[in-house]
Amino acid sequence: xxxxxxxxxxxxxxxxxxxxxxxxxxxxxxxxxxxxxxxxxxxxxxxxxxxxxxxxxxxxxxxxxxxxxxxxxxxxxxxxxxxxxxxxxxxxxxxxxxxxxxxxxxxxxxxxxxxxxxxxxxxxxxxxxxxxxxxxxxxxxxxxxxxxxxxxxxxxxxxxxxxxxxxxxxxxxxxxxxxxxxxxxxxxxxxxxxxxxxxxxxxxxxxxxxxxxxxxxxxxxxxxxxxxxxxxxxxxxxxxxxxxxxxxxxxxxxxxxxxxxxxxxxxxxxxxxxxxxxxxxxxxxxxxxxxxxxxxxxxxxxxxxxxxxxxxxxxxxxxxxxxxxxxxxxxxxxxxxxxxxxxxxxxxxxxxxxxxxxxxxxxxxxxxxxxxxxxxxxxxxxxxxxxxxxxxxxxxxxxxxxxxxxxxxxxxxxx
Length: 415
Fold this sequence. Notes:
- This protein is mainly α.
- The chain is built from 15 helices and no strands.
- The protein is globular and about 70 Å long.
- 23% of the residues are buried.
């Protein structure tokens, strides 16, 4: 059986390869495909699994005590509120999402895409989590990490299980490829073209971007192999994000609305905030450097008893404090703000990109959906059970592919 480590290596190799060759278009097409396929699979799984569990009322009655409570040990209201803020900063400043705003024809389109994303971000988590939630009411002792795939396996025919696994692989690859493309682009523009080779040609910049993609991919792969060995992956990830995300994201969001905050304050917040956070993490715990100080005994005990809440409070308050002090002390408009306003004004004078400029990715997307529909049609004829489910998904894929073909023909000629 393939080990997790080797699975990570194979996945990273595939993602680095297609991201290097296809760039942002490859990332966006992967995003679209995995969203549609995974959504179709989950929409099929949820009602089938609820029926298997005996209906909605049976699911509620068979759920363990406290199953529907919004909070749990280690996940208090303070943590949930702080985590909401962390996600807010992340969605507003992470370049993985900023890239999506930059690859649409106009600012209005970027606004509409973000409204759609925000709506789906509030609604779809209930859909994604439903299979594992319902499965818990049937087999309460099942491994939580296996609940999702076990739920799908119990109600989906063999072909659909493979499709679900492919969609989950694609979703993971989409997240990884987005990070690869974003960091490679930032390193190419911010390091290579600005400092290493300012006169670089387009072909040289593309080559540099591909090398950066490879290097960032190796780094992310190494992180994926190391992190699970530091403890339970979920706890390590929550702790890292709680402590560092605000220092990385809040200054960027703040600078969008403040005339006084420039790149120097952003760097100062990150460079000063991270050491302060590390000092808190490794000095104020019960086994930290300052654990022997009697005056800090109560504080050490409080932090150790509420680790997640303390991580979030410190991770958010430290950068906010630095930014507030910088805002109060600064008396003039930052030059970076003026440059940004000039670039915004220049951008608004440009012609909007025509729809014909985006025909190629739509073609690839339409044909990909069509091929998936053909595969599902074959599975429908070969299946001995759940034929209606397979046929329904085949029809949906065919309809979506057909609508895209009609849209392309009407908007910019034939395929």
